[in-house]
Amino acid sequence: EVQLVESGGGLVQPGGSLRLSCAASGFTFSDFWMSWVRQAPGKGLEWVGKIKKDGSEKYYVDSVKGRFTISRENDKNSLYLQMNSLRAEDTAVYYCARGGYNLLWGQGTQVTVSS
Amino acid sequence: QSALTQPASVSGSPGQTITISCTGTSSDVGGYKYVSWYQQHPGKAPKLMVYEVSIRPSGGSDRFSGSKSANTASLTISGLQPEDEADYYCSSYTSRNTLVFGGGTRVTVL
User: Fold this and answer.
1) What pLDDT is attached to residue B81?
2) Burial code of A84-108, b = ≥16 C-beta within 10 A, e = fewer?
3) What residues form DSSP beta bridges with B21?
4) Which residues on chain A are in Cβ contact (under 8 Å) with B52?
């Protein structure tokens, strides 16, 4: 069974940083692109970015380019999202997902950016 | 990266058939077969219901079917049931090698 467990969310001040982690199990992690998707309170889904199987290619939504970085450690079956220069509008539930366009989702972790 | 266009809400009675549309452009929906549909119940993570326009994941309900014509994809739910009441999102691969979602459709079972 595919399992994705996000962690690292919390409350952070504007301008601050946070690193999210996603622990994967139940599949061969290194065989799949991985993605991050977020959902602001009461809003729809927004794709954040994705990373290739070997980490050699990364793509981001324009609103997070230069601030967020996706990385992975295949030997640890782990995906990461480093978020810098956080803004109030980054407040959302952040989901880790298996795949680049056909997504299987974790349960999400809440990130709140507020002073 | 503009969101794909979905109706805000669709409703139907139990047993009826409803269809949700998802309109994009030739740079996303119209240009690729990588359109997916997700179901999301309140407070839960999204669940993949259809991928690559019309393929159901293993174990998925055959009451859910997908199709595409030009720049518009559609999700049809037949034999509507109370548990189908949820938010539904479409997504599409884009020419920029990114992913774009629709704004979401609230399905209400009357």
Assistant:
1) 97
2) eebeeebbbbbbbbbbbbbbbbbeb
3) B74
4) 102
Number of Cβ pairs < 8 A linking chain A and chain B: 59
Closest residue in A to B8 (Cα–Cα): A44
Quick one: what percent of chain B has pLDDT higher than 70?
99
Does position A67 have pLDDT exceeding 90, yes or no? yes
**Rounded Cα gap, residues B8 and B76, in angstroms:** 16
Tokens read off for A50:
């994705």
Q: Phi and psi dihedrals of B83, rounded to 5?
A: -75, -5
CB proximity under 8 Å: B 55-84 to A: none
Confidence category of residue A22, pLDDT binned at 50, 70, 90: very high
